[in-house]
Amino acid sequence: MLRSADWLFTAVLFVIAAASTGGAQELVTPVRVGDPSAPMTLSVWAQQDYSHLAARPAIASTFAAVFDDWARTHRDVQLRVSVMPGLELHKAKLQLAAAANRLPDVASIDSFWLPLLAADVQPLEPFWPAEDRADFLPFTIQTLSDPAGHVYGLWHETDCRVLFYRRDLVPTPPRTWNELLDTASRVGREQHLSGYLYNAGRWEATVFDHLAMFWAQGGELVDRDGRPIFGEGANREAMLRLLGFLRDTIQRGASPRTVLGNNDYQQLTGAAIAGDVAMFLGGNWQLKDLESGLPPAEFAKWDIAPIPQRSAATRSTGTGGWVWVVFARDPARQRAAVEFIRSVEAPAHAARISEATGHLPVRRSVYRDFPIFSQDRWYRRFGDMLVDGHARPTVPIYPAISQHLQLAIGAVVSGAKTPDAALEEAWTAVKAEHSRQISRSTATAARLDLLAWVPIAFAILLPGWLLARTLRTVSGTGVRHLPAVWWALPAIALVTLILVYPMLDLVRLSLTDSTVAGRGYSYTLASYRDLLGDSAFYGMAGVTVIFVASSVALQLVIGFGIAWLIDAARRRGAAGTLVARVAVVSAWVIPGVLVGVLWKILLIENRSGIINYYLSLAGLGPLPLISSPALALTSVIVANVWRGCAFSMILQYAGMQRVPRELHEAADLEGLSAWQRLRWLLLPQLAPVILLNVVLITIASFNTFDLIIPLTGGGPARHTEVISLFMYRLGFFDLDAGRAAAVAVVMLSVNLSLAWAAGRLIMRGATDEPSLAATGR
Amino acid sequence: MTMGRRQRWWFVLALAAATAVFLLPQLWLFSLSLKNKAGVYEYPPRWIPDGASFANYRFALTHTQVPWYLWNSTVVAVAATVVTMVVSIPAAYVLSRERFYGRGALIGALLAVQMLSPVILLVPIYGVIERLGLVDTHRGLILVYSAMQVPFTVWVLKSFFDAVPRSLFEAARLDGASRARTLWTIALPIVRPGLGAAAIFNLAAYWAEFSLALVLLDSQARYTMPLGLFSFQSAYETDWQLLAAASFIGLVPVVAAFVFLQRLFVAGLTAGAVKG
Questions:
Q1: Contacts of A242 (CB under 8 A, 6+ apart)
Q2: Could you tell me if B186 and B170 are in contact, meaning their C-beta atoms sit under 8 angstroms apart?
Q3: How, if at all, do strands A302-305 and A194-197 pair?
Q4: Alpha-carbon distance B192 to nearest alpha carbon in chain A (angstroms)
Q5: Size of interface A-B (CB pairs under 8 A)
Q6: Closest chain A C-alpha to B206 CA, distance in angstroms
Q7: SS in 3 state form for chain B?
Q8: How far apart are CA A562 and CA A550, in angstroms?
Q9: Percent of chain A with pLDDT over 90
Q10: DSSP structure class, residue A523
């Protein structure tokens, strides 16, 4: 069946392709680039906005042309291009693929992930002549080389952070923190807008954007050996001054607390387009966004300046960027892969691409030979700023540093902690993580692990034992029953393979210090010790309890209420209840991540946000719906309730249909009001359904984190970080499989106790209520 | 049922208000999908933008892979639903109608397993699928999806089988019909609403699933709708108006399926629930 589905799919694609090309051989299609008959196929994991699959037409068509150029001259190779999801998820997928030996031949990665993939990236210099390498900006080669001189990546574009400002409001851009604070608070007060905005949400840019202010003071994150040193000596002083400055932006009224909700550059651009900000710390590519989002006269008001620093004499900016790397091990494939990369990044192509993406080229010849980069006033200035560029250290500890500094910045900006306390906490956490990394790297790699067979044995023995008992009993009582359990066997086998065995393996994993890449680990109880000794864990447990309790209570009451309204309306012969049901259910079938994105759009804190707009009209707002701790948690709960009510509604509505007609008729005879009927008839009848509903949605809420990621990312600081999100972050952001598994096991024990309680209740509610379980998700 | 006309109006009014609260976010999403980039951030925000157009929908359907995602999601959701049903029906049937040792334990175990969130198990599940050589295949995803919903589906179907009058089975037994024949000719036709209900619950769950698809699929050509929607968000910026249009396109099939099947579905749950 599946084969035929694949076949049908191919046929449909073929028809589409044939229709769109009129039969001509297309070399660049969404999934294949190159000649379909080419003998060699390379897999490529690309960035959405750096491929022919980009959502923006200008970028997509540029890449289609660039790839087409390559395909015409390389008839013996074809590519399978896949677009990876943004940032952290792409990183985690690469790690899983590395563990399974399934890495693509070519990938585009964020430059600072390189150390995570150090064991798998291949040197490029055998196929990449030195004279061509010399055309690239020196930092791109240095950052990606090892001491032996091997180069492991080709930097394909870079960017830098700048201060965007409105010339009509800020005639001379501030050069120092003090000037920035003065100007921003004055302009903000006079113009009734945000003086200065920046990223302070739970994401990488919150740290990276601000590192320039640390580096300019001479601060260093790590030493030569990759050991963290940002919490020691002069580095500590520099970091404290940076955190103090961020605290001052709020205290002096230069910035609103809403910056805590900024976990996407789009929100900065959005505020600028909505005319709600005088200055913001952003990235050079945002210029293109402002240009396309603003009328020319409005756009003309905007200008850029170097990032204000503590002292006007210093300059720095964070240069990020993406890097092509090759994982293919076979030399012929390596050669083909490097040829592809070099063709895409040939000067003429690189120039076209940078023009389309708004990012900055990294080739000297591009700046020299292509007029737009030497003459365009923007590119020229960005090019000047790159001189002071500073890349993040490519060391394994950097992602942990970033995670904990994100928390520190969140805590300081929200006023929850002093810079000292916040830094101390981050420093302790990073040091602990670093020592974990050290001990892990000394563990012996991939030996035969007998303990790994224990979950397998259990997974076979548990159902095996059950079956054996069944068969033995059967042999005593007669043959008629023998096949009965066999009918359940496919279900048992499937569940054992996909759910029970993984659950047992998870318990084993929680007793290791394994990473997601999974090479070399040892058995230890450290994960549980760390977890239970971590005060943040109890904070998150508190957030989880509030989240779960409010979600359950509201989903139940609202779901019941709507079901009751629908039922009552229907009984009274009202039409249109289908519309109500569809409205509620349509919220339920949206993927959770999208629910988060949708609510983030609704809750935008600048004046273009629809909810804040109406709050302002009502004289109540605007409110910091994402950036204040209490309101952020409320927003997350509201979004979850909005999504989850359908479940309770369906369950309760089904339950109401079970109430015998005679009871309703009796109520009619008694002349009970709707309220009396609810109190004395429905509630007692529905008690078991309500009980089951509570259990099911409790477990569902406990496992919910999907909508929180885009909405708040767990921020501000950790005020919306539920335990399931903490687990997901540990596994997929920090790649710490052992600790993630330990959290999962703790969650699992809670879930299973709830399941056990549910089982007891349902069993007791007995065989006459079997349909109650019928509505679990 | 002859309550006052006035009271009916109150109910309809309250219901309309509740409906509006639930629909407003989607209406705003729809409004966004009709805007251009500047319109998204317009102040004051407007529900019906100037120059509203379906350009984003046209773009999503012709210049992005959205049609493919729809097709992939359809294949995966339908196939997984079929597998789930095929595996669950016989299990539910024997658990409902037959008495054998370990039945109680199996029912309890199924309920317990129903509480497992596959998201917790992502890394070990990836390991299993990788060892089966099914990473980056629809078959692997279908396998995992099917398992994910089997416990729940068995519970639903069992409750429907429980509700079938015992006398019908007695008659079949007296006629000497085999178990398979009894299931096929007697039980299944009666529980058809239950099958419909379970199917739509499963379809909806598979349609919206994101985390497993993210981990188990590598190739763009195989991405499902939620994954495809997520890849509209780039590392730096997201064009919300386009994402909104694509989301709406993704919402239409599943909501349509619900509207089409909901009669059957609610009637089904009801039928299963009213047991003699």
A1: A210, A213, A214, A217, A219
A2: no
A3: unpaired
A4: 15
A5: 433
A6: 10
A7: CCCCHHHHHHHHHHHHHHHHHHHHHHHHHHHHHCCCHHHHCCCCCCCCCCCCCCHHHHHHHHHCCHHHHHHHHHHHHHHHHHHHHHHHHHHHHHHHHCCCCCHHHHHHHHHHHHCCCCCCCHHHHHHHHHHCCCCCCHHHHHHHHHHHHHHHHHHHHHHHHHCCCHHHHHHHHHCCCCHHHHHHHHHHHHCHHHHHHHHHHHHHHHHHCCHHHHHHCCCHHHCCHHHHHHCCCCCCCCCHHHHHHHHHHHHHHHHHHHHHHHHHHHHHHHHHHCCC
A8: 18
A9: 35
A10: B
Interface test with B, best of A3, A12, A82, A659 (most B CBs within 10 A): A82
C-alpha A706, offset from chain centre:
9
Nearest Cα of chain A lies from the Cα of B7 at a distance, in angstroms, of 9
Question: Strands A277-283 and A154-166, how do they pair?
Answer: antiparallel
Nearest residue of B to residue A452, measured between CA atoms: B124
Answer for the pair B218, A82: CB distance below 8 angstroms, yes or no. yes
Q: CA-based angle B35:B38:B42, to the nearest 5?
A: 90
A92-96, A467-471, B52-56: the lowest-pLDDT one: A467-471
Token pair belonging to A241: 């001054």
Length of chain A: 777
A108, containing H or E segment: strand A106-110
Residues A207, A409: Cα–Cα separation, whole Å: 8
For chain A, the average pLDDT equals 85
Task: State percent of chain B over pLDDT 90.
Answer: 20
Inter-chain touch A485–B102, beta carbons under 8 Å: yes
Residue of A nearest to B274 (CA): A658
Q: Which of B33, B95, B116, B139 to mutate to test the interface with A (most CBs of A within 10 A)?
A: B116
Strand partners, B52: none
Separation in Å, CA of B67 to nearest CA in chain A:
10
Predicted confidence (pLDDT) per residue in A314-359, tens digit: 999 998 888 999 999 999 999 999 999 999 999 999 999 998 888 8
A775 to chain B nearest CA, in Å?
7
Which among A601, A604, A613 is the top mutation candidate for probing chain B, defined by the most B β-carbons within 10 Å of its own β-carbon? A601
Q: Read off the pLDDT of residues A157-192 as tens digits, 9 standing for 90 and up.
A: 888 999 999 999 999 999 999 999 999 999 999 988
Contacts of A224 (CB under 8 A, 6+ apart): none
Backbone phi, psi, residue A40, to 5°: -105, 135
| Chain A residue numbers touching B69 (CB-CB < 8 A) | none
pLDDT tens digits for range B215-237 = 899 888 899 998 888 877 766 66
- pLDDT by residue (tens digit) across A601-649? 888 877 778 888 888 888 887 788 888 888 999 999 999 999 988 888 8
Structure tokens, A236? 């500590």
Write the CB contacts of A260 (distance below 8 Å, at least 6 apart in sequence). A200, A201, A410, A413, A414, A624, A626, A627, A628, A715, A716, A717
* Proportion of chain A in helix, strand, coil states, percent, rounded to 5: 60, 10, 30
Other residues' Cβ atoms within 10 Å of the Cβ of residue A616:
15
Which residues in chain A have their CB less than 8 angstroms from residue B72's CB? 9
Region of A735 on the Ramachandran plot (φ > 0 left; ψ -120 to 50 alpha; else beta): left
Burial of A10 (0-12, 13-18, 19+ CB in 10 A): exposed
Question: Stretch A294-306: mean pLDDT, rounded?
Answer: 93
CB A168 within 8 A of CB A227: no
Buried b or exposed e, range A176-185, using 16+ CB within 10 angstroms: ebeebbebbb
| Distance from chain centroid for Cα A147 | 34
Interface contact flag, A569 B43, Cβ < 8 Å: no
Lowest-pLDDT choice from A411-415, A649-653, B126-130: A649-653
